[in-house]
Each structure stands twice: as C-alpha cells, then as structure tokens.
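Weekly puzzle thread! Below is a chain. First person to post its structure in token form gets bragging rights.
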Amino acid sequence: MFPRPQNISKAYGGGRNISLGGETLSAEEKAAKDKRTRELLAAYIGGKNKTLDAKTMAECTKALKEGDELMNAGRLKQALPYYEKVMQAADFKMLLVICLYSCFIVVSLSYLLLKVSYMQTELHGLAALQWSICLDSLCRSKEAMGMYSKLKYHPNDRVSKKAKMFMFSFQAADFLKVDGVPMPRDTGYEGYFDQFGGQRNYYANPDEPEVGIREIIPYMLFLVSPIFFVAFIALRKSLMLCGTPC
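Winning reply:
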C-alpha cells in the first residue's frame, strides 16, 4: 500500500481545479488565443496553399481536359504528365486547427480553409483521381492505392466517393487473397479480331472505267426473272381454274 498524499492533483500532476462547466478563459487569454489562430490562418493561406490566379486556373483546367481525352483514347502513359501538372499547380491540403480547452477538443476553421481553396483542391482531386486510375490500369496498384487512401478524405464528394469505392475494391481483393488476374498475351484469337480493328476505307481507282446502265440491266433481269416466272405460273393457274366448269 502506498501512502495517500494530501493533495493528489499536486502530487501526480495537474493542480488545476476545473469547474463543472469547463475552463473559463479571461478576456486577455481569449484575445491572445484568437490572435494566434488568426496568425496561423494567415500564414497557412499565404504560404503553400496560395490561391491560384485566373491564368494558372485556366491552364490547369485545359491540362485536365487534355489528360481526360488521352485517357479516354487509351493512351494512359501520355495522360500522366497532364495530371501531374495539375497536381503540382493545385495543392491539396486539409488543415484542422485543434485547440485543447480543458479536455475539450475544438475543431475550428477547417471549413473556412476548405472553402477558400475549394477550386484548386477540386482540380487537384480530379487530376489525382484520374492519375491514380491510370496507374491502377498500368499495374502500378501500390502507388494508386496510396493516393486513393488520401483522396477518400477529399472535400469534393465525387472524388471522395470514387476513392472510397476503389479503396474498397483493394480491401476486397486483399480479403479474397487476390493479387492480380493473369492475362495471357497470346490467346489464339488475335487473327479473328485483328481484321475488325481500325477503319478500313475503300477508295475507288480513278483509272477504272465506270460501269454503265447497259452492263447493269442484264444482272437486274437475271435477279428479277424468278419473280416474273412465279407470277406467270400463278396467273396461268388462276385462269385455268376460272375456265373449268363447276
């Protein structure tokens, strides 16, 4: 048994008496904390998370569009630099200012910061999402999964939902012990499908003589002759039936 000290708070740390409603700050302490918070906020906005100007925003939007066009065309490696350009120009950071007031954690100013930098974080989120999908399609799943894990906390709903969906697919594959799907290079069916690939346009030779109507008429008569033959037999049979007395 250890001896009980007379003042437990003083012996084992603390020594502060906090009332039931929480710690009450004086006007001077509250003003100092608010001033410190404003300084941190100004430093954050004026630092790495600068607002993009109109020119840079237009360039990022154009690069994102060009990257999407290349990705839709199946040129994944060529699309990566365009997405990386947007990701470097538009920074994505989420700041949570956490203040500890007598065992109470107060999260403040995060919504304001996200609203200030929403446009650039949206561009970064869309570019990073497409960049991750390209990497995933290029069998670079580990890099893609690392970006998905960050984007699932993105303020843009569309980006975060898709990132969570892809993260769930990775978790499902890990749960099912599926590392990948083997894709054989030679399936044996290439010769059947290669002839349908690409556009095969027929260009007439200008030196070839044009086929006239006189050459076409015999073929037309040959194709139509069975119809006339059947019609003649039907007409003859109907006349014979009408001429036969009942």
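Puzzle host: Confirmed. Bonus trivia for everyone else. The first strand starts at residue 97 and ends at 101.
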